[in-house]
Amino acid sequence: MLVFSALLTKLSRIIQAVTLHTSHGELKVLRLFIRRKHAVSDDSEQIELFCEATPKAAENFLALCASNYYDGCIFHRNIKGFMIQTGDPSGTGKGGDSIWGGPFSDEIRPTIKFNSRGMVAMANSGRDMNKSQFFITYSKQSHLDGKYSIFGRVIDGADDALSIMEKVPVNHKHRPLEPITLEKVTIHANPFAK
């Protein structure tokens, strides 16, 4: 079972932990940092969420996680050396919703680039068509700069889990032959709260 865990700092000092349980590999903890980065020392996975730079994408992602929207979603697209994509409950890669009931506009920031493995961005069908789908890069993807809203990045320890997912065989449309499923999202209380 693959576990994505995330600490969500919600615009101020409210922090929640989110566990995304999937069917492959193991990511122990993804941390989502909003507004300021909190230093917590452990061996977990971490994701930095760019909430000030991409507030719509970050809020949409956090709200969908909190509402169990991603439970049961498959990673429907997996391209070795490029990226892995999920966030469509229909599993077709054509579905998904935002918290606003329709697509929301891109939040392209010239200072945030696809410059490394583990960049997390909105997947969409065109300009200003963001909903619920997102992808995580397997490597630097400069050709995507200025085209997709990057709202976070894996900042620690994702190599093992991403490597496992990257090696899953796919068909000619890059759909995994062995399903990689986001089984559920569990939200926990902040273990660091006083």
Automatic annotation (TrEMBL):
InterPro entries membership: Cyclophilin-like_dom_sf, Cyclophilin-type_PPIase_CS, Cyclophilin-type_PPIase_dom, Cyclophilin_A-like
Similarity remark: Belongs to the cyclophilin-type PPIase family. PPIL3 subfamily.
Enzyme category, top tier: isomerase
Annotated SUPFAM superfamilies: Cyclophilin-like (SSF50891)
Catalytic activity: [protein]-peptidylproline (omega=180) = [protein]-peptidylproline (omega=0)
Domain PPIase cyclophilin-type: 47-187
Protein's recorded name: Peptidyl-prolyl cis-trans isomerase
Any one of the GO BP annotations: protein folding
One Gene Ontology cellular component: catalytic step 2 spliceosome
Protein purpose: PPIases accelerate the folding of proteins. It catalyzes the cis-trans isomerization of proline imidic peptide bonds in oligopeptides.
Single GO MF descriptor: peptidyl-prolyl cis-trans isomerase activity
Keywords in alphabetical order: Isomerase, Rotamase, Signal
Isomerase found in the keyword field: yes
EC number: 5.2.1.8
Taxonomic classification: Eukaryota, Fungi, Dikarya, Basidiomycota, Agaricomycotina
Organism encoding this protein: Serendipita indica (strain DSM 11827) (Root endophyte fungus)
Residues spanning the signal sequence: 1-17
